[in-house]
Every structure is written in C-alpha cells, then in structure tokens.
Amino acid sequence: MNAARINASLRVERLVALGFLAGAYIALGGLAGQIVIGGMTDQDEGTKRFANGAVFPLGLMLVLIAGGGLYTGNTAIMTPSFLSGRITIRDVLRNWGILYVSNFAGAASVAYFMAFETGLFDKSPYRDEAQRQAARMFENGFGEVLLRGIGGNWLVCLAVWLSYAANDIVGKVLALWFPTMAFVVIGFDHCIANMYFGTLGLMVDTPGMTFWKDFIWKNIIPATIGNTIGGAVMVGAFYWFTYIYQFPEEKLKERLGAMGIDEDDLPDIKNFSEVDGKQQQALSWTTSSTPTMDSHQQQQVPLMTGHLRSPPPLPNALTARGRLMLRTTLSSCLTTTTPAHRVEEARCRSLLFRRGGGGTSFFTFSKYKGLTS
C-alpha cells in the first residue's frame, strides 16, 4: 500500500530515471545469461536453461535492492491500492505508462551500448545464441505468448511479493531467486526482458526478423498483455481480495466494534423468503437484552415510523441475508443519526418490533435509555 502511494506521487523525472535503471538492470541479467549459456555448446537444453535461470535473477535483484521502477512488478504493487480506493486509475496509468517506455529505453540502451557495440556478439557461439533467443520470440502464436506472459509475470511478481517479507539482503536474494529462476527455466515470457533480447536480435541480423511484425506484434504486445494480467490479477487482485477486501458483514462488525456494540446483541430476522419473485420480509425479531415494558413505559417510547404492513405468513427461515439487512439498518441508524459525541446514547437505543392483531406491525425506534444495557 505505502509503496503504491509513493510510486503514484513520484515526479515524472524520477519515474523516468527509475524506469530506465530497471530496464537496464533486467537487460544486464539477460546479457549475463546469454554469455553463460553461449559457451555451453556441448550441454543439453535442460542444463542450459538452468544455467540461464541461475544468472538471470541478477536483474530483478538489482531492481529491488539497489532501486528501480519496473513496469511488470508495479502491475502487482499498484493494483491493491487502486482497488482499495487509495489511488486513482490516473495514478496507475501514469505510473505504468512512464515506466513502460523508460524500461524499453533502458533495455534497448544496454542492448546497443553494452552488448552490440562492445563486440560481445560479433562471433559465434555468442552471436548464434543471441539470434536463437530472438528467433524464439516470434515463432509462437499470439495466444501462446500471451499465456506465457501471464505465467512469467505471475512468478516475477511473486518474487517481488516474497522479497517484501524479507528483513535483510540475504533474505531478499533468496526470495527473488527461486521464482525468477523457475520462470526462466520454464520458458515463460517477460516483456521487459524481451525488449532487450529483441533489440539485440535485430542488431545481430536475426534471419527473418522484422521490427513491427515479429518483434512488436508477435511478441511485445501479447507478452505485455499477459504480464499485466499475471501481475495485476494473479498477484495484486487476488491478494487484495484475500487480505484487504472486506465483505459487508465484516465492515459492519468492524464499525459496531468501534462503537462498543457486541454483534451478538443484534436482533435476528425470522420469516425471510421469496414470494412471487420478490423478496418479502416478515419483520419479526426479538432481542434478549430488551426487558419487558409495562404500558406506562410504552407510552413514553416515541414511535419513529408508522405502521408497516406485514407480508403473508411465511415459513420460519433465518438467513444470513436477512440478518445482514437488519444489521445494515441498525448500523445506519446508529452511525448517521447520532453525533460522535453521543455514542453512549446510541448504545442505549434499540430496535423494537411489536406484532399486533389485525395483521399490523409496528417498527419502533426507542430512545428510552433503560431498555438496553
């Protein structure tokens, strides 16, 4: 929550700088992996993947420990605060848009200045490895890359999520390494890493690769969509729903607890069912904390509402929804009609229902302080 608000309040210049660094760090992790597996010409594919997965997490470690603004990680970080109403959709889109563009700039800069211009990929086997990784980006269909993008950022954002639980650098390194290693070994897609691999692939003249059709349309766009879903939905939204979202009854219980009212003292609704497609409610409830009033006390209790017509006799059925409707009504009465400095008086109020003859019901809202404890 705090990280999202800080990200939303950063100046554009700082977001651009952090985004550029994050894109460069991810590219450096990809570059290190290419150098490692480029020299493993006599090893099987599984061994190469594990070696690449062991080195690639360097980029995410630099982002989370040294500092950086990574688009894919922020899809999970910003979502809970947005769903909780702490930041606006404008804040989210501003943060994501600036980081995405600056991540691309950082990754492409490393591809050109650190990889291509340094001559690291001028000869085989490293040039062949760069071409192989670039060719893999556009050999799959749009839907396949999208699904791989969901899986890729799901694991990357889980790594980020786990790192927040660590109290020291060693703990953060371990939290970041395992999920990121798994994403690389499996072969999922990460749009920021692919910005580096694709840019370098174009520079080393990967056969059959074009910028717009193969690099952007076949990989970057579906990978970005998948990464956004994997981070914002599979991590951010799911954990928001699990740990932050409150159901109406939970909100009411918290509000009543703050007012010093025990939930067990709330009356129960009976006779709640559905008749002719419309929900009918037989307002018939009791409360054990309300003492019996004599006729003199009844005359002292003012009626806040008039007569309410009772529905036809219905089978007794105590339902959670019925209880919720009554509790919401009671909470509204206690919180909206009573000033904060009269909370003690609100505790003394009670909802009384008296069912009389002739099919007429009375809904009484009492201010008589002696009725309840």
Helix content: 55-70%
Radius of gyration: 31 Å
The residue-averaged pLDDT reads: 79
**What about the largest sheet?**
3 strands, antiparallel
Order of helices and strands: HHHHHHHHHHHHEEHEHHEE
What amount of the residues lies in strands? 5-15%
Principal-axes geometry comes out as elongated
Count of individual beta strands? 5
- Which stretches are low in confidence, meaning pLDDT under 50 for 5 or more residues running? 268-292, 297-318, 334-373
- Cα separation of the termini: 40 Å
State the secondary-structure class: mainly alpha
SS summary, helix count:
15
Strand order of the largest sheet: 3-5-4
List key phrases describing it.
373 residues; mainly alpha; two-stranded antiparallel ribbon; elongated
How would you summarize what this structure contains?
With 373 residues, the chain is mainly α.
Structure description:
With 373 residues, this protein is mainly α. Helix content is 63%, strand content 6%. It contains 15 helices and 5 strands. The protein has helices at 2-9, 12-38, 45-55, 58-66, 71-83, 89-116, 126-137, 142-163, 169-186, 191-203, 211-243, 248-258, 295-300, 320-336, 343-348; strands spanning 272-275, 278-281, 307-309, 350-355, 360-366. The strands form 2 sheets. It has a 3-stranded antiparallel β-sheet with strand order 3-5-4. A two-stranded antiparallel sheet has the order 1-2. Mean pLDDT is 79; it is low at 268-292, 297-318 and 334-373.
